[in-house]
Here is the input.
Amino acid sequence: MQTNSHHVAARTPGSRLREARRQLTTTGEVADGLIDAALRRSWERSRGFGLAPAGRAPGAPHASAAQLARALEQQRELASNARPVMEFLFEQMRDTDSLVILADAQGMLLEAMGDANFADRAQRVALRPGANWHERWRGTNAIGTALADAAPVVVHAGEHYLDRNGFLTCTAAPITGPDGCMLGVLDISGDHRGHHRHALALVRLAVRTVEQKLFDTRHAADLRLRLHLQPEGIGSVAEGLLALSDDGRLIGANAAALAMLGLSRADVGAASIGQLLQLDVTTLMAWCRQPAGAPRTVRRHDGSALWLRVEAGRHVLAASHGSAPAPRPAQARADALAELDTGDPAMHAAVERARRVLDKPISWLLLGASGVGKEVFARALHASGTRRDGPFVAVNCAALPEQLIEAELFGYRPGAFTGASREGAAGRIREAHGGTLLLDEIGDMPLALQARLLRVLQDRQVTPLGGGKPVAVDFRLVCATHRNLRREIEAGRFREDLYYRLNGLTLQLPALHERQDMPHLVAQMLRGIEPGRELRLAPELALAMSRYRWPGNLRQLNSALHTACALLGEHEAQIDWWHLPDDLADELRGISAPEPTVPTVPAMPAGGAADLKAVSARAVSQAMQSCAGNLSEAARRLGISRNTLYRKLRQLPTG
Ligand SMILES: Nc1ncnc2c1ncn2[C@@H]1O[C@H](COP(=O)(O)OP(=O)(O)OP(=O)(O)O)[C@@H](O)[C@H]1O
Here is the structure.
């Protein structure tokens, strides 16, 4: 995360730059004050490396394919977290003749994505993976200079030290790892005439996003705190991030968090939570066991407030509940299909139809709303058939930009496009050879690719991007979509011929609220989440759940049960309202009973809404008194969520 501002702030006016370059090439020195001080320092460094501005390029090293592959492997975490962000950047820069580049901390270019037109010209100055753009080799340039100054930088046209790079404008910002070390640089390089005014802002935002992703990846198992001065800032690129060990020691922080808490890098590994905030580890752990809800306020030691959200990593949850993480459901089991048949007639029919054609050479089409379990079903089909020992490859067609799905699916030859790895790639279709290929969200596949896919299905062979010999493939195809494909065909967004090829057997999976096997489904999910424990739902809750519409289907139910299990005490066996995420509990309560009922509520007096309110208010006050003001306990006794209790407390008459 960057706190320094970029150094080459204002672009040097052309006349001054020309004069500065004249001085540089004739005397090797540039008069003070003529150009930006940081740029002058960078030119001086470049000269110190023995580089001459004009003439032939010095012999910069270029990594071999094997060296590049090794560097990529070493920076796998960086590259995989940066890639989706680079794709997004590339989308923003489309048609501006530019490249989006990732380099490592030594200045070696790891990946590049960009316009083919511009890529050709960029090749001439070796702006491609494997090349090294450290200042030592190329003089002043955004990648090398951002590394040297550890700050974002724009290097425009003639500000480049080497004349030959004068056609470029480059904008780069260093990427800092969760431990504060510089990992590499993200850069946008393009023709100087097409300079994008917002490139610097875009690059800085992109770098922050990558840094946040790296932080979350690195600290996935730890206790994480997300901080901001305003509640809305949490989850944004401006948030502060802290990671803590189980005993509350600070083990990671981004620059924003360090600034918010007045800390330095040296405090990471040394400070404990009590030194950072007026907060102790027991309270934090208790928050962790509650569903992630609205942000909370905490106080710094000077008394000022910050907003905070706690996220418990895998270790933390397992440690605080003494349970191992739940296994993935229905994966690679011998009769995985039978496990999905938990008593719902529609699901039973789907399973039975599937069984009949399990090993016949036809394609499957799974239809159903998001979260009904299409991917789980596809995995079960794979695990139940004769190809179960082959690979199961899933591709989400909606998650990738068009030009990437093509490479991802069909593979590419070495050098097929800028950024293509030197070895090329086999593609997901070939990876599925001998097994099952799931194309999820097939309804979102772009038309051009639909035509290519159809050809693969007809010819049973794939030709990688960039040409080459077709390769025979043999796989079972399962497609899934939440869209109505017939309607997509009518709207001209889906090819009819492909549709007929895909729907060998169409199975419609029921939405959760249509299912009649809720108790069995819940029991099965609970066994998956807490193996070895006999857990059950409170009867009133089970009833409300069976009436609820579940917009997120099985995914939503599964995640609600995960939360409930996390909140359940060690010796509790019954899941009740207060174990559920607040928003879901409120919705479910809306279905079952509009007002809380407690045994201590006095008999309902005859009267209108005002009386009802009075009864409710009395019940709330009594519960608060008998629990000595403990909100969670009072909410539990009343059978309402804490949020609802807060609301009711605010409505209580004062005095
Ligand atoms: N039979 C099951 N038992 C337990 N959990 C299940 C079951 N089916 C689905 N789930 C849960 O629901 C989640 C969603 O399932 P899945 O990804 O298969 O849905 P989908 O229909 O493919 O969703 P989308 O269309 O959004 O990709 C799974 O991650 C899993 O947690």
Remarks:
- Residues 329-330, 340, 368, 370-376, 440, 480, 482, 524-525, 528, 554-555, 558 surround adenosine-5'-triphosphate (CB under 6 Å).
- Residues 8 and 36 are 6 Å apart (CA to CA).
